[in-house]
Amino acid sequence: MCHLACKNVLICSSHRESTRNHIRLIFGCVSVRQVREITLQTCEWSVSKRALVLNLWHEKEIRELMSKKKALITGVTGQDGYYLAEFLHSKGYEVYGLIRRSSQNIEQRLGKIAEFVRVEHGDLTDSLSLREVLSRVQPDEIYNLAAQSHVAWSFKTPESTFDITGAGCLRLLEAMRQTSPHSKFYQASSSEMFGQVKEVPQTENTPFHPRSPYGVAKVAAYWATVNYREGYNLFTCNGILFNHESERRGEEFVTRKISLGVARIKLGLQDKLHLGNLEAKRDWGYAPEYVRAMWLMLQQDEPDDYVIATGETHSVREFCEIAFSHVGLDYRDYVVEDPQFYRPAEVNLLIGDASKARKKLGWKPEVTFEQLVRRMVDADLENQKRLLKQASA
């Protein structure tokens, strides 16, 4: 319990969470002259060096004495970046998004989060731009979500995939070490690092055997993150996230390809759905829940690496079956298994054990696989109906 005294008011913190340079306070106050409680909105703050003297009777705001925490997100225009920005904004953060200067239609790509995300121009392939951004922003937390993240495409562009996904992480870590060493760093690692799995389920201790240029690049980024933690004593964490989907998933990914295909077939806009290996199995979760796990990692007293997963595995065929049956159709009448969509080196079975995250972070998934599939189908149905209505207007 922490007490701050000021004229006629006693400020008491009912909760204190100290993490290096930051403190989280939930304030209540009681008048010396009369019993009166005032509830202030919970927020995440960085403690400033200014004197902690408050006078609520004169309506002085906490912002005069404390400044909001700042978070920098790379890959802010992607699925995870969008949900993470929303989540951090709801926590009271100042949210900065790193976007390449050459990017087009930035506000359109950001969508609703454009209202509060502060755009910073930088590129993971350009060390100078990263140092300039970090030196200027001085973020409390850095979330590196940017990557060339399409596994199949990585076979066609292995060099650029490694430059962005692997070396890009190293450049960002080095920029942080040089200009903002107080920052906490989250690296978006991937279950694709396990590849040809050595054990089932996969944990933080399972050996890596990546089966794609994307997986190789993620392994490099993983070990760079560990090295900067151990070698430079920086607060760096890896979140080994298994597949996580949502209504905002890119159309090039198989889950969104299925949900969009189901919607278009149901509305008579498409006849068949061509897919690759229907027997490939993945551990699929709901993206908005996974970004909370990212944040939780950076709220701990010590940095560490965590597997984030549901602990269940489902095949692409199961995804199709649930998606089509949701709209009253049989997937066998519409899905075509097409060899042209096979990966050169397939990863057949991924299933994660998130026991460590459950125990240390208090994190667990809530949305079921079936709920996830139906949400995606419903969202694409509504979107396709809206587009049809606009076209006929």
What would you note in describing this structure?
With 393 residues, this protein is α/β, with parallel strands linked by helices. It folds into two domains: 2-66, no CATH class; 69-388, NAD(P)-binding Rossmann-like Domain (Rossmann fold). The protein contains eleven helices and 18 strands. The strands form five sheets. The protein has a seven-stranded parallel β-sheet with strand order 8-7-6-9-10-11-16, sandwiched between helices. The chain has a five-stranded antiparallel β-sheet with strand order 1-2-3-4-5, with no helix packed on it. The protein has a two-stranded parallel ribbon with strand order 12-15. The protein is globular and about 60 Å long. It catalyses: GDP-alpha-D-mannose = GDP-4-dehydro-alpha-D-rhamnose + H2O.
Layout of helices and strands, plus pairs?
Blueprint: E1 2-6, E2 9-19, E3 22-31, E4 45-47, E5 66-68, E6 70-74, H1 79-90, E7 94-99, H2 106-110, E8 118-121, H3 127-137, E9 141-144, H4 151-154, H5 158-179, E10 184-190, H6 213-232, E11 235-241, E12 244-245, H7 254-266, E13 273-275, E14 281-282, E15 285-286, H8 287-297, E16 306-308, E17 314-315, H9 316-326, E18 335-337, H10 355-360, H11 369-392
Parallel strand pairs: 6-7, 6-9, 7-8, 9-10, 10-11, 11-16, 12-15, 13-18
Antiparallel strand pairs: 1-2, 2-3, 3-4, 4-5, 14-17
Helix pairs in contact: 1-8, 3-5, 5-6, 7-9, 7-11, 9-11
Keywords: Lyase, NADP
Cofactor: NADP(+)
Function: Catalyzes the conversion of GDP-D-mannose to GDP-4-dehydro-6-deoxy-D-mannose.
